[in-house]
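Lab notebook, bench 4. Still working through the backlog of constructs that have no structural model yet. Next entry is a single chain of 149 residues. Request: give me the structure tokens for it.
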Amino acid sequence: QYSKQLNSIHDIDRKSIGSYLLPASIYLTFLLSDILDSKFIFILPMLILGISDPMAAIVGISFKTNNHKIKILGIDTGKSIFGSGAFLLTSFVISLLALYFNRGVFDLKTFYIGLAVAVVSTLAELLSWRGSDNLTIPLGAAVTLLLLM
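Model written out:
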């Protein structure tokens, strides 16, 4: 039996490794940003993980009508169209805002980096299983930023 602390982490009906991967993810993303001396490589992935992932869950659970489950190669991902759409939209908006404040300019590069981070993060969330998105989302976003900035 779990303690009453951190119910949001332990109160899920499926088996998940997410609560174990979250600290590792935070540490690895921070270590990468520290080695590269770029706080931004830590901040944006953590914002996406902290806002877009819960938003996807809330939207995916809340909307039932026409919210079809996504299948890849016939395998049910357990993700819904509306939830993944919410993840993509929120991660794109967060990326655009963060990139604008970081770079000080809103140009085509800001747009395409923001879109790339959002798409990679959404794919990382979509293809993850049993909580592994706590690791794949921030690392996918961080690697995308490294490659494009």
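Notes after review: The beta strands are 69-72, 75-80. The first strand starts at residue 69 and ends at 72. Flag for follow-up if needed.
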